[in-house]
């Protein structure tokens, strides 16, 4: 897949992701830690992968237009907004031995169901627990 994030220049990027843009110059390491980290967009405007803390931040949920459906793929993180969002709970551990293949069919059915519910397409997100830093 080709990287197209800047296709159309800054104005196009700003149209889709205004919450990523700031007027501040971020030059120092400690300044970067004050920025909000958003989930990774796996499929453009269709699927995101984020951490449990990102899935618990309602401002992030609103910014990326998660309106109904979240896959909670953690072993011990509660659903953050059970009165607002519909969750599929997959009790998966965050380690190399976890077999993700068995969870895939159920997650796919949930994704299909979320796209067909009420005739509206929704943007699902998947959140996982992060015990180890990503290199």
TrEMBL record:
<dbReference type="GO" id="GO:0004864">
    <property type="term" value="F:protein phosphatase inhibitor activity"/>
</dbReference>
<dbReference type="InterPro" id="IPR053272">
    <property type="entry name" value="STY_interacting-like"/>
</dbReference>
<protein>
    <submittedName>
        <fullName>Probable rhodanese domain-containing dual specificity protein phosphatase</fullName>
    </submittedName>
</protein>
<dbReference type="InterPro" id="IPR029021">
    <property type="entry name" value="Prot-tyrosine_phosphatase-like"/>
</dbReference>
<dbReference type="GO" id="GO:0005739">
    <property type="term" value="C:mitochondrion"/>
</dbReference>
<dbReference type="GO" id="GO:0001691">
    <property type="term" value="F:pseudophosphatase activity"/>
</dbReference>
<dbReference type="GO" id="GO:0062030">
    <property type="term" value="P:negative regulation of stress granule assembly"/>
</dbReference>
<dbReference type="GO" id="GO:2001244">
    <property type="term" value="P:positive regulation of intrinsic apoptotic signaling pathway"/>
</dbReference>
<dbReference type="GO" id="GO:0019903">
    <property type="term" value="F:protein phosphatase binding"/>
</dbReference>
């Amino acid at each position: 897949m080709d990287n197209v994030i800047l296709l159309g220049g800054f104005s196009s990027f700003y149209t889709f992701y205004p919450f990523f843009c700031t007027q501040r110059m971020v030059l120092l390491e400690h300044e970067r830690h004050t920025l909000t980290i958003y989930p990774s967009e796996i499929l453009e405007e269709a699927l995101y992968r984020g951490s449990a803390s990102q899935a618990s931040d309602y401002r992030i949920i609103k910014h990326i237009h998660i309106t109904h459906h979240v896959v909670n793929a953690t072993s011990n993180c509660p659903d953050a907004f059970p009165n607002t969002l519909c969750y599929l709970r997959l009790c998966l551990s965050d380690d190399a031995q976890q077999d993700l293949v068995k969870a895939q069919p159920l997650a796919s059915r949930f994704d299909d169901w979320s796209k067909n519910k009420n005739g509206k397409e929704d943007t699902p997100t998947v959140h996982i627990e992060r015990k180890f830093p990503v290199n």
